[in-house]
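USER: Study each token:
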Amino acid sequence: MTKIPFRFTQQASCQETKARAGLWSTPHGIVETPRFMPVGTVGTVKGLTSVQIREAGAQMILANTYHLHLQPGEKIIEKAGGLHRFMDWSGPILTDSGGFQVFSLSNLRQIREEGVTFKSPRDGRLISLTPERSIEIQNLLGADVIMAFDECPPSQSDWQTVHMSTQRTYRWLLRCIEAHQRTEDQALFGIVQGGIYLDLRKESAQSLVSLDLPGYAIGGVSVGEAPELIHQIVEFTTPFLPAHKPRYLMGVGTYREMAKAVASGIDLFDCVIPTRLGRHGSALVQGQRWNLKNACYREDFTSLDDSCPCYTCQNTSRAYLSHLIRSKEMLGYILLSLHNVTELLNFTKKMRESIIKGTFVQDFGHWF
């Protein structure tokens, strides 16, 4: 593959775990790892402006190929100058390939070797998404990192089903590599699959690493299995991924799961949790989830968390937030989303700082 302007440099490591702090250079800036990445599925981190996201501490965000293909369409985004300009985000962007929709839209799709046929949840029209088409769309969107089109089997699938799925994911990856037209400025990541079966995880990881890709993701976790099983999969799989390239755990964003994954050597995370909880009136505070509709907050005039630097915590009270949520005011959902995103970004930022200082286990060991 053609050399591309991406470089991962490890700055520090934990002597008691496999945690590491690094710098990952991309065409749109440096990402300090470990780092949480807010999800902007349709070109927006729901409820927040790009300025707010930057101020919250985000360095890299995500968008989704499938959803942007449906609306507004990749050609419109290309005409706008690419996804960065379209959504006013100057930092690095990662686009998910649409492979997760193979899992999440199981009642609306049909999988074949050629690709997947979806029934659009918007208007019912049939959409064909192949590895080549996914890469073509992502090339037009212009994200810094694009993901290979993969199949994510349900967690309860039997070994034979997952084995067939994992092999198909590898064959699709080869087609993605062949189709990729922007190797100079877009890094193509492969996705390790294998379900809950460790032998398949090992086989998948080793086959992907042999292709010498710019980075690697662990997918197919947090899709119904128990948290401890997620940790087992991540802890087992990560050592098979090269140390000189970024490691990305897809769809994980709780304190405990991220801390355990960092201890296993993971660098990047994404999850819709912070904005989804915000839209439902809940706040993340020191790893806990608070429902602001609860009566205990109605006359609580303290901030959510006086140690949090976000606008919400520095300028509003729990009572005011409770009032907004009870009144179904849009501002309440925005303020909670802003806080929640800041919360997870700060958590990963603090883990990074503790790795560099040599106090990771002391500071975060109680989470894992």
Summary: The mean pLDDT is 94. Residues 330-357 form the longest helix (28 residues). The domain at 16-271 is CATH 3.20.20.105 (TIM Barrel). Residues 195 and 263 are 21 Å apart (CA to CA).
